[in-house]
Amino acid sequence: MEFGISFFPNVGPVEKSGRDYWHEALSLVDLCDPLGFSHVRTVEHYFHPYGGYSPNPMVFLASASQRSKNARMVTGAVLPAFNNPLKLAGEAAMLDAISDGRLDLGIARAFLPHEFERFGVNLDTSRARYEEGIAQLDALLTQEKVTMSGEFHSFQDVTSLPRPAQQPRPPIWIAATTNAETFEFAGRNGYMCMANPIGGAALNELLGVYHDAWQAAGHPGCGKSMLAFMMYCAPDTDQAIEEAGPDVKAYFQTLADAASGWKEGASTKDYPGYDKLVDVLSKEDVHTQREKSAAFVGSPEECCDMISDYHRQVGGFDIASLQVNTKMMSADKAKASMELFGREVIPKFADL
To answer: How is residue 163 annotated by DSSP?
Structure first.
């Protein structure tokens, strides 16, 4: 099993400036190579403390790629709904070049009503934009002189530049949460699966949908899965809970606020049950997450137990992507947590 680090900004200007947030994040990237963390990941979101400091993950990852020479650079994830695929393809290949062929291109459908509203994009078109965008991105990265006619973007005889350093293209990861259709889409098309355990115990079944679709389509192997977790490792579990607990709770409160549009009338058949999901997530805290082994907050020994437990729950996964600097946690505490986890946890899973 591999372990990487993830940055999901959960702050606004009153709490921490963008300059301070990203400078601290880069200082944590410096620990990846000596401690054995395999990737660096960040998101694409807008306008709100929930992720809004990262409107373009490729900007940060280009810088991060110069601080770590081994870690993969993961977009977690870019949003075709708000981007022209011609622009995304060029930016992705540029990052692949800058990182010397270390880009993993995660792609997501977007799910926050306020982002769709502010970009003037109809929620009912989200899946169509997403699937069209992925197909066009894939073609632009793997082929030259590409012509495609779509509902939202069309182009003729385009060769995107630069060409990717990885051939035939960087790995594509599909971000999926609770919708079985998205897991099936990823498996059927031979893409890697990027999922999140905060959705609940159904992840076991959803990953099964992914693997079944992969095999039914005749792709070699069984696919690959990356799951996202919050992580804070301290010498003592009580200390870990005390120091990380408020930030874990604050993360879910900020998420619930950002997604409040689902409670305020936003509606589309493509996001079934999201109003109820917001209710569930708004009640989550460090204790509920630890009970489900969905947040690795504890001593090294307990972190090992939770990782093993969740691995069994979902029938196995390949990569854990760890959010290491929740909310207002100091860079010093995040570094200490990463160092302890790197020394005492990562080596225990080298052969899993």
So the answer is: P
User: Could you tell me the CA-to-CA distances from 235 to 105, 232, 306, 337 in Å, in that order?
Assistant: 35, 10, 16, 9
User: What six digits make up the tokens of 247?
Assistant: 């930030």
Instruction: Give me the domains of the chain, ranges plus CATH numbers.
Output: 2-349 (3.20.20.30)
Give the pLDDT score at 315: 87
Which pLDDT value is given to residue 323?
95
Q: What is the residue-wise DSSP string for 323-348? A: E-S-TT--HHHHHHHHHHHHHHTGGG
* Rounded Cα gap, residues 8 and 17, in angstroms: 14
CA 84 to chain centre: 20
Produce one character per residue of 33-47: b if its CB has 16 or more CB atoms within 10 Å, e if not: eebbbbbbbbbbbbe
Q: In which band, very low, low, confident or very high, does the pLDDT at 267 lie, cut at 50, 70 and 90? A: low
Lookup result for tokens 């994830």: 77
Confidence class for position 86, pLDDT limits 50, 70, 90: very high
Phi, psi of 30 (to 5 degrees): -55, -25
Q: Where are the alpha helices (DSSP H) in 45-165?
A: 57-64, 85-98, 113-119, 126-142
Checking if the pLDDT of 269 tops 70, the result is no
Rounded to whole angstroms, the Cα distance separating 168 from 179 reads 29
